[in-house]
Design a protein that fits this description.
The complex is a heterodimer. Helix content of chain A is 36%, strand content 27%. By secondary structure, chain A is α/β, with parallel strands linked by helices. In chain A, helix 3 packs across helix 4 and helix 4 packs across helix 5. The two termini of chain A are 35 Å apart. Chain B has one domain. In chain B, 80% of the residues lie in helices and 0% in strands. In chain B, helix 3 packs antiparallel against helix 9 and helix 8 packs across helix 9. Classes of the chains: A alpha/beta, B mainly alpha. At the A-B interface, helix 2 and helix 3 of A face helix 1 and helix 5 of B.
Amino acid sequence: MIRAIGLTKDYGSRRAIENLTFEAKQGEVVGFLGPNGAGKTTTMRILTGYMPPTYGSAQVAGFDVISESLEVRRRVGYLPETVPLYPEMTVYEYLKFMADLRHLPNGDDMIDAALDLVQMENRADGYISNLSKGMRQRVGLAQALLHRPEVLILDEPTIGLDPAQVVEFRNTVREVGKERTVLLSTHILSEAQQLCDRVLIINKGRIVAEDTPENLQARLVGAEHVILRVKGEADDLLPIITKIDGVQNAKLQPDGSLEFQFAPTADVRPAVARATIEAGYDLLEFQPVGLSLEEIFLQLTQDNTRMER
Amino acid sequence: MRNIWTIARREYRHYFTSPIAYIAALLALLTVGIYFVVIIYYLTNQSYYSNSAPGIDIVIGPLATVFLFATPALTMRLLADEQRMGTLELLLTTPIKDGELVVGKWLGAFLFMLTIIAITLVYPIVLNKLTSPGIDQGVMISAYIAIILLSAVFLAIGTAMSSFFNNQFAAFFATLAVLILFWWLIRLPTYIIQNDSINNIFNYLDLNGRFNSMVAGTMSISDVIYPISLTALGLFLSAAAVEIRRWR
């Protein structure tokens, strides 16, 4: 369980986060979504007992992060953004060191279990300096999972992983997230959507939106956005496409492709495809255009100001 | 205690994977070895000198000078490097106290220094064989206590400097500067100032003078208390510096 109330952190005169209030329950995977510098790492560092907030308070696993910092740290597994490893140690030595620091009674069994979870059981005797980026990330995760913490805090856990590793990593997080509280940060929208039960969108140190991924998606995506590519230039196609019922905002792109929108409830793509072929064009592809994080923030902040009015 | 030991053990092992530690150990042992051989050769070939037998000071004296330069190399990365590699964030989010972390770091370095000191124990054995009726055991023990206390102080100063700076080289030179201050510079005012009560303060703080009297075999309570308090002060400042890092 994580409960943050009015968290504010100043670095000198710069305010990194302002008045963050949120909650994460047991068994819930909560995503922190925001661009770099939004205050995700700062918030996580406060919740892990690394540093105290300037104002506000937070409880993690039932303990206060300021006055009961050691109790909090005992119950939290943390994977910082730069994976903290000692390259001159073997994977086993490193985890053993962490097990000793956490006073785990049956350290070796727990090390085996953690390595098993991240599928590194056959690399225990390898030196960390010889591991690939993805493997290091997994060792970092094993370290965070080692003591079977109630709360798991992962800062940009999939950064630098290749797509196959990302899929594996997501499966692991989903697996361990069933009976724990997981807070993870990311700046990739689709990742937050796939992994999290709830998403907190944070920008410039403030929470701009908080919702389930589905609701967020519905709120954000007012219209489907598609780019149509044909062989050659699509100049003469524009008036034809514009006439089709349901097509909105059709316009030519500089590269000769055609961009248009339509309501999610009325898919116009089949009609557009037919029209394109009837007009004598060779249809190459429909490319859906996802919203970039910047567009999302723009949209959300506009929403908020509209609501405030 | 257990956390201190866990940190210290990792730190001690780390020295055996680090080229800097090997170079520091080599430098210390080589210097002491060459110095020893030259002095023994000189003394055995000078008949008029033969009435003064070589003592343990010919080993411990140069060892202290080498430690002055080896200490910054051994301590510069203790905390500065953890900060650079991001592992400080890991250690500071495990359930250990800042003080335990700092004392563990210092203890690891201290154990490495003790290992070097232990290797030099061959010299008193050799000296004992070379001289008749053998070297003074009391002086030998006093000299070894002196070098052990000295390395404790040096390393505590180094640990503090490493916790003040994010940069290893800044930590290196800051440590060297403070050590030179306590080892050579602090008694210089006594050559100028005529006031005895002020000079007593400088003499009290002078590590070198205390060290030399202990190596010569005279030890007072304050000779032991002063380096222990200086060590404690260094470690206290290190822990405070780590705590301050959290609040920044």
